[in-house]
């Protein structure tokens, strides 16, 4: 101890620290530039999403990486809560398991996705996963992933912003408080540490009220509305768009157009994601039907680079999902539109302003 005390550390201002980039983890900014992934040199050495500059050793600009071929939305397999709503009164929503049927649904979903991808005929295809942190979505991904070898999985990211809508707590009523105390006494459970539980009867009343108030704007007591989910999904969409623009999920040195993004989430969150991506109205959102457990909605890259549901799904399938004539017209436009183009013949505009009928516009 005396020896340690006799050699005091020099003042911080006199210490010589190794220079390194905390994001790229290279020795110098120059190394970070030279070692940048996907063959790009970025304007910012620390944050590649700031943009592209030039090819290494040249002055020619680097084209953006190819967009993924598909964005595949997957709803989790059947959960215990889908079978028995009373589960929510004793198990926290994020901890609810899949049923055995749900696990089988997830694995079948994985093989359907693989079959769809292999029909492209490409040898260099890969998948990248975004997943909600809830147990039922993580279990879905684990079983879905059995259809893919490690070499075909580019990576995965747990993304809290695509979690389930928060339906509130059982503690929002005196009856709920009584139920929780009784449960704690009878089963000697430390239920207070398990999360927010739901009062089954109150939840049924709240969901009935939501139908009268409006599915998008109704906020569950101490919980979220679909509008609240929209706000966090917007943040996720911006992150996803940045990932796509810089090819973050592409392995180093690769620029394959055969990447497939798979988002494993929940029914409402996925419908809100589609609403945000395609700029659907509240009325259009409220007309959508929920996806079945273990089912998919596929956004596939069209001829101009944008994503259209009609590239994979039939008109009949999308009508069953809830798309209207206006939404289908827009999806048809998305098939051939180029990135950055604006639909000046937007069918929503034509139908919203009724006086256009005098000008002979199709509404």
TrEMBL record:
Domain of life the protein comes from: Eukaryota
Sequence intervals crossing the membrane: none
Active-site residues from the entry: 76 (tele-phosphohistidine intermediate), 164 (proton donor/acceptor)
Chain sites annotated for binding substrate: 75-82, 136
Residue span of region Disordered: 46-67
GO MF terms, alphabetically ordered: catalytic activity
Protein name as annotated: Phosphoglycerate mutase-like protein AT74H
Natural source organism: Hibiscus trionum (Flower of an hour)
